[in-house]
Write a structure and sequence with these properties.
elongated; alpha+beta
Amino acid sequence: EKFDKFIIEGKKKYVGKTGEVYKLVGVECIKRDTVTIASEFQRELIELLMDKSPIIKLRKWVINKRKILFKEEIPKEKIIIYKKLTKSPEAYKGKSGKAYTAPVHVRIAKSLKERKIGGGNKVTLFSSGTIIPYIVIGKEKNGQIQGVHILEYKGNFDRGYYWSNLVYPPLKRLLETIHQNVDWTIYEESY
């Protein structure tokens, strides 16, 4: 294929543009498991990069997006994480003798199943292939990520977690691909 503009982030990860038409391959904004707010921000950044926006504009854009995530009201639909169970929740176990912490979505599924929320007599909702929609709301004292099923979400999410793990990393990779001599780590949040 021929493109007027092209960004290669890595092997099988690129963006091409011909006229006003984009071809996105392997980037987060087209993946099912990327939170909506991260997809929206990445699509905006791709347009800015394709338009060859100056570094100062890109820096201001990143600061603005960070401010939006940390300060503004974000609809829950934009921060839902979707993870698939690859086996029943009870089947997730550590290797013998080793401490094991199940992933967030597995812990949520176990909790819902134990409390008989979302289950039915004839339907097993918590089996292999079930997608668990959840929102990260913080860290527990032991450092484990704490999440809640979207039906139990009360409005507060862990903004630091989202910026550090879901939103900024894909933006930073694109920015570093185009502007390799700029320090983009200054916008990271230690989590």
